[in-house]
């Protein structure tokens, strides 16, 4: 199908740029002085991950808390205050300073920022039909009633292997007879040691060296201390190890349940991820299924295969496969790394400087610290640069990895389609897996003993919630304000209903071009005739196209024919291609979108080859073409007379790793069906640039030109923001929006605004009880209690319908709101917007402007790598 998610070329891995040196896998090792020279150029250059040298692999009213929630939390906090903003100290009004070990090593900080609690009486709505739901959360039934203690643990000499640290401390578990929790640096226990500083000596088994362990008392952890959440989460990690789970990249997997796919040399490992947080009135643990796909080959085996298959292009092929890939080490807590370069001239025989200043080879280091022997000392090392989260915490270390001890994670697109049956778990099976997991947790003797010592336990049952279904929106295909439109089956879509009616605003054209290869003449003729028959009842009038014929399917040939056939008067370019070759697709799109500013449609021949489906396929293509020409297809009833909706999303540029394209898509009419689309590039370390201000200002001016007035209210839906970025987004982006409004030069214009962060990458799932067990909630189900957060104005919305697996809800977090809308109106309006995405005749997971922004950012980041021609700004050319 044309230019849709199903037919666009599969995006390859972003390629890192690195020069290949040498000619063989067994490249000449770099001399020590060459290593030293490079380290002088890059002082942080060290092997595998560690902060050490070791290869360890606007405006608006101030927000107020709701009275009801505050009262409930105050009562609970009399025994335990673990929510955001909870204070320490004797009277609970001041926050006690955290001990030195709280934020070091693997310790996690669970104090979430108070972003924008609801300013009204309640963030809960009431509209809709009440539905009984369960969620993948389990309550903490009993909370600690006694004091506990936090310690900081240091090893001298330094032990960089966390497993080894834990093992050594375990040898002196007699110090803590009621058990303890140790994450590698910070330790919590229900036992108070007699001395503030306790020192013990433990002998290291690998070399019989005496290791001095210093255990320093930091503070008493009272039930009112927010560190209690940390204790609960650390204990849960310990529970995983009791059950035999293996930690991989901070999630836990059940290796015993691994499924092998030998024909693809892949393995699928099931697991779970958990998170314990303060929710509305209870501390809850979220539990969700996770799956890790692993190669059955090491990276060294993969490299040797490339060498055997094509020795002349060995380096090029190896970099094509590995650069940008995520690998996992089989040691150092099974961390994952992105490969940025293959260091062809660096081998395990080379030396590097350790933290203490002495030099050591990679071979000796691996033996001393991990008891691993390098089998091939001539293999070239892999290099991984620090991730953004590493840089944020001050880790600028460049890591070197030995291919022999790495395996590739993930799977390509074709493999994922085959393996999806193992990851698309239906609701009934998902609930069974979750409850079985909790049964294992609550019946394991070692878990029971630890839980008893800490005086808390988890519930056996899923949390239950009253949700509400907002009902079905009517789809309207006329501008008549009195039209009620038509309803549809909420479990499906409205693709059948729109085949006959005339589109809301059909667009015709006078001159269009069709490019094809010589052998695709029959398919092209069928397409043109079907296109004409489909467009006529929709109200779209098209003449016969100008035909451009390619003698072969090479990218250069298509580019030459496009340049010789397309003229400035061309209004549409349709290109029929034999396959999903990405470089050809990119060249076509760049010529049409960037160079010429002409809407284009790329169609793969196989989507037109089946007679029984060609009518359905071409109908969807016709709808896409109408949108790309500036037309409208359908609408829903808009409760606001003069509002604007803005979708914002960003996507990394696959050609230049250090920058992203931020797309901004703004509605321009009362029906919320015409858009003004812009965007700009920004670097990874850059705040949203001044271009953002100019683009918002331009969109407001364009709205005024079309509607003779400026919009109010304005709803900003911001996708692609993690929890840690919320304060930054609220402070920076809303300030930029205010600057854009001020740039209009009209001091009387002060629109009401709402800024909503959209988060679809969440682990929350909901289940509705049906006649045959657990089912997916229907589209339009909203949840705004129990599992929401007390410090936020947030809600969950199930807006899409799925035929396989468990539906994923979307979380909406209103971080700024001067519109003073009641929650019902905010929730219903958000749901309406999920009906307006023209690439799918049904509801989608996010508001349409967000999805349009994503499509624009994806097109630029994957194919164009340049800003689109402004001639296309008032069309949905990126569908």
Automatic annotation (TrEMBL):
GO terms for biological process: piRNA processing. InterPro entries: PAZ_dom, PAZ_dom_sf, Piwi, RNaseH-like_sf, RNaseH_sf. Residues 1-108 are annotated as: Disordered. Residues 572-865 form the Piwi domain. It comes from the Eukaryota. PANTHER family: EUKARYOTIC TRANSLATION INITIATION FACTOR 2C. This is Uncharacterized protein. It comes from Strigamia maritima (European centipede).
């Amino acid at each position: 199908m044309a230019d849709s998610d199903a037919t666009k070329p599969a995006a390859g891995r972003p390629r890192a740029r690195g020069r290949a040196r040498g000619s063989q896998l067994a490249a000449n090792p770099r001399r020590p002085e060459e290593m030293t020279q490079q380290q002088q150029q890059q002082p942080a250059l060290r092997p595998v991950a560690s902060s050490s040298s070791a290869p360890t692999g606007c405006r608006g009213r101030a927000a107020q808390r709701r009275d009801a929630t505050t009262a409930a939390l105050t009562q609970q906090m009399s025994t335990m205050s673990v929510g955001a903003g909870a204070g320490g100290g004797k009277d609970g009004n001041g926050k006690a300073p955290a001990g030195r070990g709280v934020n070091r090593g693997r310790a996690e900080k669970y104090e979430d920022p108070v972003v924008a609690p609801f300013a009204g009486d309640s963030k809960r709505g009431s509209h809709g039909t009440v539905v009984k739901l369960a969620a993948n959360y389990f309550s903490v039934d009993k909370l600690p009633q006694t004091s506990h203690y936090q310690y900081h643990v240091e090893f001298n000499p330094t032990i960089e292997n966390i497993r080894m640290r834990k093992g050594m401390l375990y040898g002196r578990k007699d110090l803590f007879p009621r058990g303890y929790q140790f994450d590698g640096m910070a330790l919590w226990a229900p036992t108070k040691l007699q001395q503030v500083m306790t020192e013990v000596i433990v002998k290291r088994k690998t070399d019989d060296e005496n290791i001095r362990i210093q255990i320093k008392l930091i503070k008493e952890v009272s039930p009112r201390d927010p560190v209690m959440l940390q204790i609960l989460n650390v204990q849960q990690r310990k529970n995983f190890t009791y059950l035999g789970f293996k930690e991989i990249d901070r999630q836990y997997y059940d290796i015993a349940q691994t499924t092998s796919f030998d024909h693809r040399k892949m393995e699928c490992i099931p697991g779970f991820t958990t998170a314990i947080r303060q929710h509305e009135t209870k501390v809850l643990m979220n539990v969700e299924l996770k799956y890790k796909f692993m190669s059955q080959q090491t990276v060294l085996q993969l490299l040797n295969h490339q060498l055997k298959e094509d020795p002349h292009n060995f380096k090029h092929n190896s970099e094509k496969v590995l650069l940008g890939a995520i690998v996992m080490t089989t040691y150092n807590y099974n961390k994952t790394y992105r490969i940025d370069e293959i260091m062809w001239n660096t081998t395990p025989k080379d030396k590097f400087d350790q933290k203490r200043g002495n030099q050591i080879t990679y071979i000796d280091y691996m033996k001393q610290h991990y008891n691993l022997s390098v089998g091939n000392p001539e293999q070239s090392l892999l290099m991984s640069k620090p991730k953004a989260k590493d840089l944020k915490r001050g880790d600028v270390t460049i890591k070197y990895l030995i291919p022999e001890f790495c395996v590739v994670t993930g799977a390509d697109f074709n493999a994922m389609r085959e393996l999806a049956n193992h990851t698309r778990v239906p609701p009934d099976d998902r609930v069974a897996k979750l409850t079985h997991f909790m049964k294992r947790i609550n019946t394991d003797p070692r878990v029971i003993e630890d839980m008893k010592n800490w005086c808390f336990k988890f519930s056996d049952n899923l949390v239950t919630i009253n949700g509400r279904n907002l009902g079905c929106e009517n789809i309207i295909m006329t501008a008549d304000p009195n039209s009620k439109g038509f309803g549809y089956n909420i479990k499906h879509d409205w693709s059948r209903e729109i085949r006959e009616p005339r589109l809301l605003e059909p667009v015709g054209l006078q001159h269009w071009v069709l490019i094809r290869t010589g052998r695709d003449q029959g398919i092209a003729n069928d397409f043109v005739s079907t296109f004409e028959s489909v467009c006529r009842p929709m109200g779209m009038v098209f003449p016969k196209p100008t035909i451009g014929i390619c003698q072969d399917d090479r990218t250069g040939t298509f580019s030459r024919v496009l340049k010789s056939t397309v003229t400035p008067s061309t209004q549409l370019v349709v290109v029929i291609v034999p396959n999903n070759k990405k470089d050809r697709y990119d060249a076509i799109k760049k010529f049409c979108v960037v160079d010429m500013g002409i809407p284009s449609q790329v169609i793969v021949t196989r989507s037109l080859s089946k007679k029984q489906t060609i009518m359905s396929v071409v109908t969807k293509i016709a709808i896409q073409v109408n949108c790309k020409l500036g037309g409208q297809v359908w609408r829903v009833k808009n409760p606001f007379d003069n509002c604007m909706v803005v979708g914002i999303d960003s996507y990394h540029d696959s050609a230049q790793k250090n920058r992203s394209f931020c797309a901004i898509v703004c509605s321009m009419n009362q029906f919320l069906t015409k858009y003004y689309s812009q965007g700009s590039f920004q670097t990874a370390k850059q705040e949203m640039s001044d271009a953002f201000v100019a683009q918002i200002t331009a969109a407001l001016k364009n709205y005024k030109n079309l509607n003779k007035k400026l919009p109010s209210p304005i709803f900003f839906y911001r996708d692609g923001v993690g929890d840690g970025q919320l304060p930054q987004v609220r402070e920076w982006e809303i300030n930029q929006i205010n600057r854009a409004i001020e740039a209009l030069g009209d001091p009387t214009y002060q629109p009401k605004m709402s800024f909503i962060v959209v988060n679809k990458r969440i682990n929350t799932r909901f289940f509705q009880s049906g006649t045959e067990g657990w089912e997916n909630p229907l589209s339009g189900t909203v949840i705004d209690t129990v599992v929401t957060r007390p410090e936020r104005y947030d809600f969950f919305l199930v807006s899409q319908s799925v035929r396989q697996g468990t539906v994923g809800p979307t979380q909406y977090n209103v971080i700024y709101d001067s519109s003073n809308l009641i929650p019902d109106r905010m929730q219903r309006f958000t749901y309406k917007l999920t009906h307006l995405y023209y690439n799918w005749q049904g509801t989608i997971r996010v508001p349409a402007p967000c999805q349009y922004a994503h499509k624009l950012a994806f097109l630029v980041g994957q194919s164009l790598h340049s800003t689109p021609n402004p001639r296309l700004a008032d069309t949905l050319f990126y569908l």
